[in-house]
Amino acid sequence: MNPNPVFSKDYQSKPYWWERTPRPSLEPIELPKETEVLVVGSGYTGLCTSLQTSRNGLETLVLDAEDAGWGGSSRNGGQISTSLKPGFDVLSAKFGAEKARAILKEGIRSLDWIGEFIEQEKIDCDFQRVGRFYGAHTPRQFSLLEKKIVNQPEGLEVPIELIPREEQHSEIGTDFYHGGIVHPQHASLDPARFHQGLLEAALSSGVSIKPQCEVQEILQAKGLFHVSTSSGVVKAKNVVIATSGYNRKTPPWFKRRIIPIGSYIIATEELDRHWWMN
After folding, report:
1. What are 122-143's pLDDT values in tens digits?
2. Do 93 and 148 have their domain in common?
3. Full domain range(s) for residue 110
4. Considering 91, 122, 138, 223, which has the largest number of Cβ atoms within 10 A of its Cβ?
């Protein structure tokens, strides 16, 4: 008897896209005694940080308790958008209009930046501007989405298409929604292959990466950080904690800045290529 009747018999906990891009096996390295920059975490944040520091002439070491990119960076759904949850009204009430505009512009700019970065680094990760459909669960919600298009803040306008209910089959194969909107500039990529490209770029830029090396304690003394790991102690002039929610022993100041965010992905059975390409 299947102890988990919700799951099929061939259920596996690892993402199926790992089959195309298995987690990399890195050459083992010795833990150095000192480094200029020590980055904890080898996901997107850690590798992007290490690229910047190494290319600016700083000796950089990346440590990870698991294999490189084992966490969310290679497990996410690969969707890329410009949107932030709070809109201009909410942000301006909290931070003022000027900062609200700066925050939203950063979101818009981030989508262009990631496309430019992937092209510049020649990362083969299926980056495409595929668009994103937001469905309205009720007629009232459809009206709110329609107002969202009309009432975009000046200077922060982005392309948005209104999709009436009778036309939604052009976007999605269901009659469940009462229409919706499409953000045509939103993008998608293969998250594991993007991480692999980042990893290769970091290594070729001189970054040292040591997986399976858990950071256990970080102390500061005489202008240096003393980082205790499962492989020994290393001294660093600078430490970047880039672990997101994967923290077993988190400093209190860091813990206060981490919030849980639910992420839900539903995958269909494999679709005919002709269907989804058209």
Report:
1. 999 999 999 999 999 999 999 9
2. yes
3. 79-189
4. 91
Structural domain count, the chain: 2
Q: CB of 244 within 8 A of CB of 72?
A: yes
Q: Could you tell me if residue 26 is inside a domain?
A: no
Does the residue 243 lie in any domain?
yes
CATH number of the domain residue 43 falls in? 3.50.50.60
275 belongs to a structural domain: no
pLDDT of res. 138: 97
- Listed as own residue / partner, the contacts of 14-22 with beta carbons closer than 8 Å and 24 or more positions apart are 15/74, 15/75, 15/192, 16/267, 17/190, 17/191, 17/192, 18/74, 18/192, 20/190, 20/192, 20/193, 21/74, 21/190, 21/192, 21/193, 21/195, 21/196
Hey, what amino acid is at 113? W
214 pLDDT more than 60: yes
